[in-house]
Amino acid sequence: MKPDELLKKLKQTASKKVCKTLDSIYEICIEQTQRGMYDFSVATISRLGYKRGVPKAQSLRNQSGEQYRALLNSFEEQHHGDKPRLESKSKDDWIEEIQNPKHKLLARIQASELAAANKKLREFIPPGSRIEVRDYQNSTLDEDHKLTKLERRALEYIISEEFLGKWGFSISEYGEIVDGNSKVVLKAATVDAVNKALNNI
After folding, report:
1. In what order do the strands lie in the sheet with 170-171?
2. pLDDT at 194 over 50
3. How far is the C-alpha of 33 from the C-alpha of 36, rounded, in Å?
4. Which InterPro entries is this protein grouped with (predicted)?
5. Among candidate residues 164, 159, 191, 193, the one with its CA nearest the CA of residue 180
6. Strand ranges in 56-188 using DSSP code E only, listed in sequence order
7. Share in percent of the chain as helix, strand, coil (round to 5)
8. What average pLDDT does range 20-34 have in this prediction?
9. 160: how many CB neighbours lie within 10 A of its CB?
10. Peptide bond into 101 cis (omega under 30)
11. Total number of domains constituting the chain
């Protein structure tokens, strides 16, 4: 059904106030077509008709705005193939509903910065890539990265009193394992490395 025909039909059973709003929406949509702007979205028409009695976008989206949306859809269908045509809905449509000019400007800046940041991320990280971040101190490791019981016992034995005493070894202040003549058997930080592995893996 053409917009003018639908308008007449909707007004037959509508109140005076609703009829006036329907007329305003119809006029705004006609003006849009005259400008070659085929955007009949709720957000756009609400913004353009703010001073002409058109309800706010949220009101148009509610159940009470069903007949208004029907009129907008009629214009959408009639001009579906026309060019140039703006997208009827945008992910940033909500910004247009902000009444405070300062807040609207800040929201646009934030949306622009977010889009730029997402673009940079896509350059660094190809779509579909999987990045895993693990905290080895606070998260549970998968089985491939855990020490087996046998491996754990072997590491524990290296720094145990039993092993050190058997060979006459001792631990230096630098984490070395040295023999009875203070000759280095296992290099500096060996003991620290073993303890770190036992505590975190």
Report:
1. 170-171, 177-178, 184-186
2. yes
3. 5
4. GmtX-like
5. 164
6. 170-171, 177-178, 184-186
7. 60, 5, 35
8. 92
9. 12
10. no
11. 2
Q: Residue 170: beta bridge partners?
A: 178
In this structure, the dihedral spanned by the alpha carbons of residues 181, 186, 191 and 192, taken in order and rounded to 10 degrees, is 120
Both 74 and 154 in one domain: the answer is no
Would the CA dihedral through 23, 28, 31, 33 be positive or negative? negative
* Mean pLDDT, the chain, whole residue set: 81
How many angstroms separate the CA atoms of 60 and 21, rounded? 11
Contacts of 53 (CB under 8 A, 6+ apart): 20, 21, 24
Q: Which domain holds residue 15?
A: 3-97
Q: With beta carbons less than 8 A apart as the criterion, state whether 79 and 32 touch.
A: no
Residue whose C-alpha is closest to residue 33's, from 69, 89, 83: 83
Q: pTM for this one?
A: 0.42
- Which residues, in sequence order, are CB contacts of 73 under 8 Å at separation 6+? 40
Judge whether residue 139 has pLDDT over 80.
no
| Statement to judge: residues 22 and 91 lie in one domain | yes
* Calpha distance 3→195 (Å, rounded): 78
Residue 161 lies in a domain: yes
